[in-house]
User: Which sequence fits this backbone?
């Protein structure tokens, strides 16, 4: 397996991954538009940006996973001015459980280290225990809980 920075030529595969990720998350989030195509990310812009590192996992030349690391500014009351954020974690179904997400996260850890960042965060749906376990394996701990209410229900 190889983890490498994404290239513009990888965009069709990455856009497909994004749609598969959205398809998997729609049942977990009643606030997402359900019957139309949506997009979470500006993947092409992220590939070109200095503050974001989009990476892919390849096995025998086939892209089987993805993720991105992004440097984000923090509000002035935090100790650090910036933090790392991980998103767009996706692994093809037939390659799950092989340590691919761990390898992508470890690659991004190294990238964040070169940017002198101390903290990395991510968000995950509570109804996605498999992803939560994968992130906990990489050392992440639960920190905040976001809550919601629909006043029309």
Assistant:
């Amino acid at each position: 397996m190889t983890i490498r920075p994404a290239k513009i030529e990888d965009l069709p595969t990455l856009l497909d991954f994004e749609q598969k990720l959205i398809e998997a998350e729609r049942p977990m989030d009643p606030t997402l538009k359900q019957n139309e195509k949506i997009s979470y990310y500006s993947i092409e812009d992220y590939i070109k940006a200095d503050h974001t590192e989009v990476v892919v996992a390849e096995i025998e030349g086939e892209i089987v996973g993805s993720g991105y690391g992004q440097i984000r500014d923090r509000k002035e009351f935090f100790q650090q001015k910036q933090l790392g954020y991980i998103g767009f974690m996706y692994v093809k179904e037939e390659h799950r459980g092989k340590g691919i997400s761990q390898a992508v996260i470890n690659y991004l850890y190294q990238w964040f280290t070169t940017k002198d960042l101390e903290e990395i965060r991510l968000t995950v749906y509570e109804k996605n225990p498999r992803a939560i376990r994968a992130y906990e394996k990489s050392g992440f701990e639960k920190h905040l809980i976001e809550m919601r209410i629909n006043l029309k229900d």
Summary: The CA atoms of residues 45 and 52 lie 9 Å apart. The two ends are 47 Å apart (CA to CA). The chain has four helices and five strands. The chain has a mean pLDDT of 96.
